[in-house]
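quick one if you have a minute, typing this from the bus. theres a chain ive been looking at and ive put its sequence and its fold in token form underneath. please have a look and point out which stretches look like helix strand or loop to you. anything you notice is useful, everything is just below.

***
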Amino acid sequence: MISVSRIGLIACVSALPLAAQMIQKSWDPAVPLTAEGKALRAVKLTLPPGGAIGSLIGAGFDQLDSYPKEWGQGAKGYGHRVLSLYGRRATENALSLGLSVAMKTEPRYDRCDCNGFQPRFGHALLRVVWARRDKGGEIVNVPLLAGFDVGAAIAITWNPDRLRKAGSLAG
């Protein structure tokens, strides 16, 4: 059975492309971000309020499930969950930033010029796997994917002992 926290996570991840379109200012895809622009973007995504909102929501779902149970309930348990998720997010953003600068990829979400739910949803899913290159063309979105994977692997190190083993990345 799928836990409450997994349903919440799926719902939050599903809403990310829509949220990106709503909060991101229009930009010209022909003008790539500089390394400094990419760094500023990463900082804005990491620092509160934007960077904290996802951690606060995710920690709430984990609190409902008492996940991980070793952290207990109450303010202390919730605080531990918030800081854990926030640390993971900061780690993911830092890794993605470094790879984006090194690989010269565009980290911003580009709006789809298409109409209708299916084409827009397809475009949003595609942008998870494919990234625009600074000088044109596309490449596998290694910065985003590696940021998520390596960030999760690093975050395991501050989880309870029971969760620090192979297969823990899947939860």
